[in-house]
Amino acid sequence: MCLAVPGKILSISTEDPVMPMARVSFGGIVKEVNLAYVPTAKIGEYVIVHVGFALSTLDEAEAGRVFKYLESMGELAELEEPSA
Fold first, then answer.
1. CA-to-CA distance for 37 and 30, rounded, in angstroms?
2. What is the pLDDT of residues 18-77, one digit of tens each?
3. Counting Cβ atoms within 10 Å, is residue 35 exposed (0-12), middle (13-18) or buried (19+)?
4. Boundaries of domain holding 47
5. pLDDT score at 25
């Protein structure tokens, strides 16, 4: 099953104005995310991410609720760092 997961924007790169990219933290795991669908997103805001694209912004409280719900369902395994 593919899910959209909340993450916090740590930094934004606008080198390509058509395809802005961000470093987004998902509970400590940082990934590169495309911000083309939410070009007004800012550092420190939370976004819902699906397949590497931020789809919308949301507030911190809602992001926390969604993250806890997904964690309780065991749906965050793909975000975990591989064990050595």
1. 19
2. 899 999 998 888 999 999 999 999 999 999 999 999 999 999 999 888 878 877 877 666
3. buried
4. 5-77
5. 94
Task: Please indicate, yes or no, whether the overall pTM of this predicted structure exceeds 0.85.
Answer: no
Compute the distance between CA of residue 55 and CA of residue 69 in angstroms, rounded to an integer: 19
Helix, strand, coil shares, percent, the chain, to 5: 20, 40, 40
CATH of the domain at 65: 2.30.30.140
**Rg of the Cα atoms in the chain:** 12
* 29 φ, ψ (degrees, to nearest 5): -90, 125
Is 83 a domain residue? no
Total domains, the chain? 1
